[in-house]
Structure formats: structure tokens, C-alpha cells
Design goal:
This protein is of the alpha/beta class. The chain has 15 helices and 13 strands. It is 39% helix and 15% strand.
């Protein structure tokens, strides 16, 4: 079967899907809608995948590019003649594919498209419904996405839900002495880890304010904040004003290869995201045996059971997060037990090698329901 994989950018998630598809009997072509520098995957495209050159994929896509992209998408369809189009996010790549009449369309939700974008305004709501109505099937990573898709008109019998999962061989518990190479060095105190981009949707300012509160009461508390983003100046102001900037480590963007070492040196993974499906970062942390302190949102509740794998705190409440960090310090003897439980749930539900074959079920549904 000839598959056209049409995504917004080329990210680590795209690399994971394309690498797995490259090992199947299918012929796979990759089409990239836009290029956003902060999101691009550093690893090369799998050699079995052919990237299709076209008018898109070189810069951020704009509304004014719509007609030009649609016309060239028709040319791509004639050139590739795909048996199946696998496209997402919903209101971007999948929407363009639906407008261009590409069939059968298997839409893949990226989580934020239904959790956030679909609710932005009437236009985004309409684009969501338009795309799902013309989708032969939908792939989603959690039950929250499934229920939202149904509310936007998607036939529930055409939805395939499976957590994208992670590589349990790459992300696994190991020797935590790797932390000794970090500067400033991490002491025997509790080490928190944040891996999300420094953007408003991920609530990293909530983490910063909560850390100030907790760190002022616990001198040995440390925070490692990976990544970067538009909130960089605000975060540093919070840390400087709170007098804790010397206890925060900023490694910057970390490669996929190096990422496990940061999970392994952490005592507790922290995420204050306001919106998530099955968070890959959360699954990576759990697979490394790191308990999680996460915002109380539906996607997180599907993975973290309080007092078993970690804790929840009310979404957007920095004071509650600060108090939860201090409680975790008081209960640090439980962290190892929670970490082992987190690894077990990752092994049972977040195994990419076991989960990915379910995509064939979505292929079969899409091919049966040409629309």
C-alpha cells in the first residue's frame, strides 16, 4: 500500500511514526506542511521514507498560503497516487487534505488540536467538524481525545485509540549518578525535572512560582528545566526575584539520545501543562522510574494514580503545586516505590513496540469507509 504521511512539521513524534512505518511492507511518502525551527527533529528521515518536495515545508504556514498549498497538494496527489492519506494535526495538515479532496483520509489527532485549537473560535470549530466529517477514520492517543472527537461529530466506530507510547529500551531505570556531571552539581536534596517547552500552554510559569515557594523552605531543592521558549524572560525574572536562580539548571534543548540521563538524575517529574492527551514526556519519565507530580487534567488522570505513581495538583494553582512539592519532600521515602510502580504501568500500557501495530486497525477502517 502507498501511504502519504502528511504532518505539520518533522518532530520527534513524526520520526517515531515514520521509523515504524518504514519497517512495514508499505511504501511511505512524507509531506511536511511547514518548518518551525524549535520543533524540528535532529535525526534524519529514515532512508526507506521518500520526502516529497513541494511548495510547503520551508517556513511557518500562513493563511494567505492556503490556495497555493491546496493547488500544489493536488499535484502531489497525482504524483504519489496514494492508497491512504495519514494526516494531522486536525485543523492543519488533515484540514488541507480534506479541502483538497484526498481520500481515504485517516486523520491523526495530536492532542492539542482537539483539546485547544478546536475551541479557539468558530472558524477553528468549523474546520474541526469539516475535517472529521470527511475523515474515514481517526487516530487518537487517549480516551479524552476520543470523547472530544465524538462531540465534534466523529463516528465512534471509526476511532482507534492507542497511546503513542515510548521506547522502553531507551527510557529505562538506571544508575542515577549521571547527575554528577551537571553544573551546578546536584546535591543530596530533591531534584525536580521539567521537560516541557517554555510556552503558556505548558504552565512552566506555574512551575517557576511554585519552585520559588518550595525552595525558600527547602535549601537543598533543585530544579532542572529543559528547553526554551517565549516565556524565557518571565521565568528568569521569577527565579531572580525569588532569589533561587542559582538552584535552577538550564541545559537548553536536549537531544533524544541524551534525554534519558536527565530523567535518571531526577527524583520527581513535574508538569503543569494546562492541556495534554497522553503526554510523551510523562510516559518517558514513568518509564525511567521517576514518579510524577502533574496538573489535574484528564490526560494526566489516565496515567497517574495519586499516591501510587505520584500526585496531582489543581491546574493553574502555583500555591498548590508548591505545597505538593513540599509534601513530596516529606514523603521522599515513597518515591522509589512510586517510581517502580510508574515503570510497571509504562511497561503494561506505554510500550511503543506493542502499541504501534494497532495502527493497522485504523488503516483497515479507513480503507473500508472511503469518503
Amino acid at each position: 500500500m502507498r501511504i502519504l504521511y502528511f504532518s505539520r512539521d518533522y518532530t520527534p513524534h513524526d520520526h517515531r511514526f515514520l521509523s515504524a512505518l518504514a519497517q512495514t511492507e508499505h511504501t511511505v511518502y512524507f509531506l511536511q506542511l511547514e518548518r518551525r525551527g524549535h520543533a524540528t527533529e535532529e535525526r534524519s528521515l529514515p532512508p526507506e521514507i521518500e520526502q516529497i518536495p513541494w511548495t510547503g515545508g520551508h517556513a511557518p504556514a500562513r493563511l494567505t498560503d492556503g490556495l497555493r498549498l491546496l493547488l500544489d497538494l493536488q499535484r502531489v496527489r497525482r504524483k504519489v497516487n496514494p492508497d491512504l492519506i495519514l494526516a494531522g494535526p486536525v485543523q492543519r495538515s488533515a484540514f488541507l487534505a480534506a479541502l483538497a479532496g484526498l481520500r481515504p483520509l485517516l486523520t491523526m489527532s495530536w492532542g492539542y488540536d482537539l483539546l485547544v485549537d478546536a475551541q479557539k473560535n468558530r472558524w477553528w470549530n468549523w474546520a474541526t467538524r469539516y475535517t472529521l466529517k470527511r475523515s474515514a477514520a481517526l487516530l487518537g492517543d487517549c480516551d479524552t481525545i476520543r470523547q472530544l472527537a465524538i462531540s465534534y461529530g466523529m463516528n465512534p466506530s471509526r476511532i482507534v485509540t492507542f497511546p503513542w507510547g515510548i521506547d522502553l529500551h531507551h527510557f529505562k531505570p538506571n544508575d542515577r549518578k549521571l547527575s554528577n556531571s551537571l553544573q551546578p552539581p546536584v546535591t543530596s536534596g530533591l531534584t525536580l525535572l521539567s521537560t516541557r517547552s517554555w510556552e503558556p500552554i505548558y504552565g512552566v510559569n506555574i512551575i517557576a512560582n511554585a519552585f520559588v515557594t518550595a525552595a525558600q523552605q527547602c535549601p537543598e531543592l533543585r530544579l532542572v528545566m529543559l528547553g526554551n521558549g517565549s516565556l524565557a524572560s518571565e521565568l528568569r525574572r521569577i527565579f531572580v526575584k525569588g532569589g533561587v536562580e542559582e538552584r535552577v539548571i538550564f541545559p537548553g534543548h536536549v537531544s533524544y539520545v541524551d534525554l534519558p540521563r536527565y530523567y535518571l538524575m531526577a527524583d520527581l517529574y513535574v508538569s503543569a501543562s494546562h492541556s495534554d492527551g497522553s503526554s510523551i514526556s510523562l510516559l518517558e519519565a514513568m518509564a525511567c522510574g521517576v514518579p510524577a507530580l502533574v496538573s489535574d487534567i484528564p490526560g494526566n488522570r489516565e496515567w497517574v494514580i495519586p499516591e501510587e505513581h505520584g500526585w496531582w495538583f489543581p491546574d493553574g494553582d502555583a500555591n498548590a503545586l508548591g505545597a505538593a512539592i513540599l509534601r513530596a519532600i516529606d514523603q521522599r521515602q515513597q518515591l522509589s516505590h512510586m517510581g517502580r510502580a510508574a515503570r510497571r504501568i509504562a511497561e503494561s500500557r506505554a510500550n511503543w513496540e506493542m502499541n504501534f501495530p494497532q495502527i493497522q486497525k485504523a488503516f483497515d477502517i479507513a480503507l473500508r469507509h472511503l469518503k
